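Note to self: the last two entries modelled the partners one at a time, which told us nothing about the interface. This time every component goes in together.
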Amino acid sequence: MPDTCVVTGAAGFIGSHLSGSLARSGWTVRGVDAFTDAYDPSEKRARAEALRGEPSFQLLEGDLTALDLDSLVDGAEVVYHLAGRAGVRASFGSEDKYEHDNIEATERVIGACRRAGSVRRLVFASSSSVYGNGPRPFREEGRLEPISPYARTKMQAERLCLAASGPELETVALRYFTVYGPGQRPDMGLRIFAEAALAGEPLQVLGDGTQSRDFTYVEDVVAATRRAAEAPVAGLAINIGGGAIVSLLDVFELLRREVGPIRIENHPMARGDVYHTEADHTRARTQLGFRAQVSFPEGYHRQIDSLRRPPA
Ligand SMILES: NC(=O)c1ccc[n+]([C@@H]2O[C@H](COP(=O)([O-])OP(=O)(O)OC[C@H]3O[C@@H](n4cnc5c(N)ncnc54)[C@H](O)[C@@H]3O)[C@@H](O)[C@H]2O)c1
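The predicted structure of the combined assembly is written out below.
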């Protein structure tokens, strides 16, 4: 019988989908979010407002580095730690903010989970960016080569979480691969391209479009994250990828089919961007029994559709 869980970053893109899914299946969800200025906080307010419709969802507003986290996690069985400062390009020159939201906040969450006694599992949202431009497919046991402050802070936070794993508190770090779907962050490529195409504006593309990603649909990410709270697994990092390698040129082809003719303007690649990402899925399959269900054309169709009809 589901009990109480905590979702940090509950007003974020992935955190809001996860919170809704948990609340709808009977969990009492204590969400927490600082509504940081990493992007327009009104998007986060709108997601939080939508979650108010779930009677078993409560939201606490505040920064994880300042709040009383002992009260927040007291009595909770699972803590999903998704709060963080995302975004590769913005991390150059903003190292202090990334260290604050990704490392200091994580240290405090781990401390509170350890003290609580009730928390059996801490699930941490890590990132495929920890692999940098390393050998593909990216294997969890392989070398990590972060090439941006964002990736480095996620790697450090992940290490803190995994080092804290023990019989009292089991921890799992999920390395999400570029997550997309309705409500995606406004700084992410798939949303920027779809918005430009729908507005009839040229798509500003960094690089020649041959770069590729193992894009992962947000509902698949939610399913994997929930499995990570229940599966008999501890002290491990696990890749969560969509399972199909899609280049930006493939994305543009889909946009033409969905929206009509598009114009593209190419610019040099940005610092910190990796060229290709590709998950090895063995661990997700064997440890979590997870396999992504939503194909890229279907998932992107849903995202484009949600942008055609923004929430009232
Ligand atoms: N979206 C992706 O493709 C992706 C890929 C890999 C990893 N991740 C990780 O998944 C998590 C969620 O990503 P997202 O895309 O939903 O990002 P998001 O920015 O939409 O959500 C993160 C939320 O955390 C909150 N937050 C940040 N610092 C906080 C703090 N100190 N105290 C309280 N709240 C704080 C923000 O206000 C925000 O609402 C992040 O940790 C991110 O690094 C995301």
